[in-house]
Amino acid sequence: MTTSITMIGTGSAFAKRYYNNNAIIDADSFRLLLDCGITGPAALHQLGIRFGDLDAVLVSHTHGDHVGGLEELAFQMMFVHQRKPVLYLPQPLREPLWEHTLKGGLTQGPLQSLDDFFDVREMPVGEPTTIAPGLVVEPIQTEHIEGRLSYSFLINGTFFYSADMKFNPELLQQLVDERGVQLIFHDCQLIAPGVVHACIDELLTLPEHIQAITKLMHYGDTMPDFIGRTGSMSFIEQGKTYEVT
Ligand SMILES: O=c1ccn([C@@H]2O[C@@H]3COP(=O)(O)O[C@H]3[C@H]2O)c(=O)[nH]1
Ligand SMILES: [Zn+2]
Ligand SMILES: [Zn+2]
Prior knowledge:
CATH superfamily: Ribonuclease Z/Hydroxyacylglutathione hydrolase-like
Organism: Paenibacillus curdlanolyticus YK9
Strand order of the largest sheet: 6-5-4-3-2-1-14
CATH class: Alpha Beta
Helix content: 10-25%
Number of strands: 14
Largest sheet: 7 strands, mixed
Radius of gyration: 17 Å
CATH architecture: 4-Layer Sandwich
Shape: globular
Bound molecules: Uridine-3',5'-cyclic monophosphate, zinc ion
InterPro entries: Metallo-B-lactamas (IPR001279), RibonucZ/Hydroxyglut_hydro (IPR036866)
Strand content: 15-25%
Domain Metallo-beta-lactamase: 10-218
Function: Counteracts the endogenous Pycsar antiviral defense system. Phosphodiesterase that enables metal-dependent hydrolysis of host cyclic nucleotide Pycsar defense signals such as cCMP and cUMP.
Distance between the termini: 9 Å
């Protein structure tokens, strides 16, 4: 069984040439949407994917480029597809996702909670959750913004997908050298300093064997100017499918 990933967007929060950094993961016949940002609905539409085609959605953190499309997803699933969508989320995100992000737009009449709109599956942090055959996801808390929870994901034990995270070479080294990670999709900021994301200059300090398995996403509109300036790392292409495990 193969598991693959297609970035429906590879852009930073402010990019205009690329959609928000959201992904589709296909494991056999199971289709997971990883983050659904402001441009998520348009990006899915562009690929001919309807919300009703998704088996579940997983959320990394509550910035708009990662969750800003969830209100439309919830309403479309309720009123167009008439099925409750499955929502996977690291357990500590449940309260902020509802109270700080979705409550204002979704509540009406008796519909007053996250569970009224989603079939919520809480994931323990630091432990693997089997989402489907061939799709096991471990949320790892990673530093992004002071006071805001953010989770990266270890998928099937060998694929690390960074949510938005600050540069953390110790974690990457541990994942590769001790836990057997063979592929890394990492968010990046093109120009230093990388304050809330890793910047390319920081990522270039990674050992060669880690760079060789690292692909870059969540980039700004000037990404083409940086092709050839990323060491052994390469940029992920929006809409292209990559085999994961
Ligand atoms: O302290 C801060 C907080 C935020 N920001 C910007 O706002 C963006 C929000 O989405 P993002 O997390 O993809 O990227 C963030 C940055 O581009 C920043 O530069 N410094
Ligand atoms: Zn982001
Ligand atoms: Zn963010």
